[in-house]
Amino acid sequence: LHTKKLLFIMLLQRRWPSSYRTIESEPGLLVKLQGLAKAETEECKEKIDETLPENLKGKSDMILFLKRADPDFKNEAQVRPYLEYTGIVAEPPTKPPSKEEVVKTLRTNVEAFNVLREQSDVIIDLEGADLRGADLRGADLRRAYLRGADLEGADLEGAYLRRAYLEGADLEGADLRRANLEGADLRRANLEGADLRRANLEGADLKYIRGWKEVLDFTGTDISEVSGLSKEQINSAVQKGAKETP
């Protein structure tokens, strides 16, 4: 089985890279060493030491260790999982889901979407996505790219939107109770009629925000260190229950 020889080489390359480079530089030496390692006898060790280059003398145990670590595979189909398990080769990359697939998953199964986020910490591109009226309670949308997304009437209660990019997003009538919008970019977003009770807006960028005065409720909303709001807008929110912690 040729794969056995390949595995022997890969194990050597991974565990002792400098020794591997030395051995590889001599034509046919790898194959010869693998052949000698088949029998674990004192004579075998001596032959390996004799065969090794001068700067690797006395390292026959290294070669024999590799041989012992070489599982007895019945066929090549068993080799790949072993290589992945030992970290010799990485698992083949999976094709990332399309934007349409992400939107569909988000609309129909928030739990499955959150699992997707756990598997991949990359930025989710939802620019301009139509999520009107979607049930997004508890959705993990941290750092999601939601520029210009239509979230009118969406239920985002308890959603995790930390550092999400929501520039120009339509959040009219959205339920944002207890949503985490810490550090989110909400420039030019529309919050008319939104419910922001106990939402966390700490450090959010609210420059040119639309519908701020028409937000239904700010009770318990944290607007500490927000940027882009005028004194009048801050006072308006405080009058509706928002809090500014020093």
TrEMBL record:
InterPro entries hit by this protein: 5peptide_repeat (IPR001646), Pentapeptide-BTB/POZ_domain (IPR051082)
SUPFAM superfamilies associated with the record: Pentapeptide repeat-like
Any Pfam family matching the protein: Pentapeptide
Name this protein carries in UniProt: Pentapeptide repeat-containing protein
Record organism: marine sediment metagenome
